[in-house]
Write a structure and sequence with these properties.
This protein is globular. It has about 150 residues and is of the alpha+beta class. Strands 1-2-3-4 form a 4-stranded antiparallel beta sheet. The protein is about 40% helix and about 20% strand. Strand 3 and strand 4 form a beta hairpin. The chain has one domain. The structure holds zinc ion. Zinc ion (ZN) binds next to helix 4.
Length: about 150
């Protein structure tokens, strides 16, 4: 069977250096569909889904933006900040429009651990159920974030 040309373009866009320096697949050798399905199944077991998570991540981003680059207390032991980097990125799934390069960092005050996500990352989670491949610098582990978001 001939490969779907639209899907081929998406897969190309995910590679390092096409849209972002590190790309979106990390070291993950699974197909895009396999990654999306696996993450969706894990979230399903926790009784949440990608859209619920994306909405919460947007709310947290909006709180973070009020800190103008400084950490803001998120309550219940978490801090958050937003760093805006110049420039914009398109969606690798070939959607129209561009996304700001805002990096949002959530820090657990208890152990100092941090994780980061971006505006484009929120979009890919919300619209495509895509949390990025394992090893991608901005992959969010769905189970980990779902557990953290329950506390915030
Ligand atoms: Zn998109």
């Amino acid at each position: 069977m001939k490969e779907n040309p639209a899907l081929h373009k998406v897969i190309e866009n995910m590679k390092p250096g096409v849209i972002s320096l590190h790309g979106f697949m990390g070291k993950d050798s699974r197909s895009l569909d396999a990654i999306i399905e696996h993450d969706a199944a894990e979230l399903d077991r926790l009784g949440v889904n990608a859209i619920v998570i994306a909405i919460k991540l947007e709310e947290i981003r909006d709180t973070a933006l009020k800190g103008l680059g400084n950490f803001v207390n998120l309550g219940d032991g978490f801090l958050v900040k937003a760093d805006s980097i110049r420039g914009k990125l398109p969606c690798p799934f070939d959607h129209p429009g561009l996304f700001r390069k805002t990096v949002i960092t959530i820090q657990d005050r208890e152990d100092g651990s941090e994780f980061c996500y971006t505006d484009l990352g929120i979009h890919m989670i919300r619209e495509h159920g895509f949390f990025q491949g394992k090893g991608s610098p901005f992959r969010i582990e769905p189970v980990k974030i779902a557990k953290i978001l329950k506390k915030i």
